Amino acid sequence: MTTDRLIIFDTTLRDGEQAPGIALSPDDKVAIAAQLARLKVDVIEAGFAASSPGDFEAVRRIASEVEGPVIASLARTHPDDIDAAAEALEPAARSRIHVFNSTSPIHMEQMLRMTPAEVLASIQEGVARARRYCDDVEFSPQDATRSDPDFVIEACRLAVEAGATTINIPDTVGYALPADFVALMERVYAEVRGDNEDVIISTHCHNDLGLAVANSLSAIQAGARQIEGAINGIGERAGNTSTEEIIMAVRTRQDFFGVEIGADTTEIFETSRLVSRLTGYPIQYNKAVVGRNAFAHESGIHQHGVLRARETYEIMDPESIGHRSMLVLGKHSGRAAFADALDKMGIVLEDVDFQRAFERFKELADRKGEITEEGLRAIIGEETTARYDVAELISIHVEGGSDEVPVATVAISRGGEELHATSSGDGMVNAAFVAIQDALEIPAKLVDYRVSPLTSGADAMAEVNVIIKTGATTYSGRGVSTDVVEGSARAFVAALNKVAADRASSVLGEDR
Question: What is the reported pTM?
Answer without folding.
Answer: 0.77
